[in-house]
Amino acid sequence: MPPGKATGSLDIQRGDKVSVKCISSSDCTRARLANFDGCVVVAALESRELISVGAGEITNYSSAARRAWASRPERQAGRPRATVKDRVAVTLRVDRQLWQHVRALESAGVLAGRTEWFTATLRDENTNWHWLSDKLGRTRP
């Protein structure tokens, strides 16, 4: 058995995300584990086709994640949590030269970040868009 592979009981559960090695012409195929009888794995491919392979023919990503969580549950993994949770994703069309200038200022360290700069610009009392809030009878942000 290759180094790093478990030699004891296999941690295989129904619904696990796996990669099936050596399926036809492709090197590996993603699948979900449908059944396991101790030796043979039945996996549902993304095409919903069921295949049967030996337990050694899969890479079990879910099992790896469970082992990692069990060994170091305090470890920060994945995307870091945002410090400000009350944000909305917005798509804007901006003149290319203006945006390149903003990105250059950010790269040079003049701006801490585009999001913070843009929010501060919109909140600036000197920005002329506040007249719209007054016309709508709404309070300013």
Overall form: elongated
Helix content: 25-40%
Task: Tell me the β content.
Answer: 15-25%
Query: How confident overall, as mean pLDDT?
Result: 78
Helix-strand sequence? EEEEEHHHH
- Quaternary structure: single chain
In total, the number of domains comes to 2
Over the alpha carbons, how many angstroms does the gyration radius reach? 26 Å
Strand ordering within the main sheet: 4-3-2-1-5
Account of the 3D structure:
The radius of gyration is 26 Å and the shape is elongated. It is 28% helix and 23% strand. Residues 1-8 have low confidence and may be disordered. Strands 4-3-2-1-5 form a five-stranded antiparallel β-sheet. The chain has two domains: 17-71, SH3 type barrels (Roll), CATH 2.30.30; 83-141. The chain is an alpha+beta fold.
Q: Brief description of this entry?
A:
The protein has about 140 residues and is an alpha+beta fold. Helix content is about 30%, strand content about 25%. It is built from four helices and five strands, in the order βββββαααα.
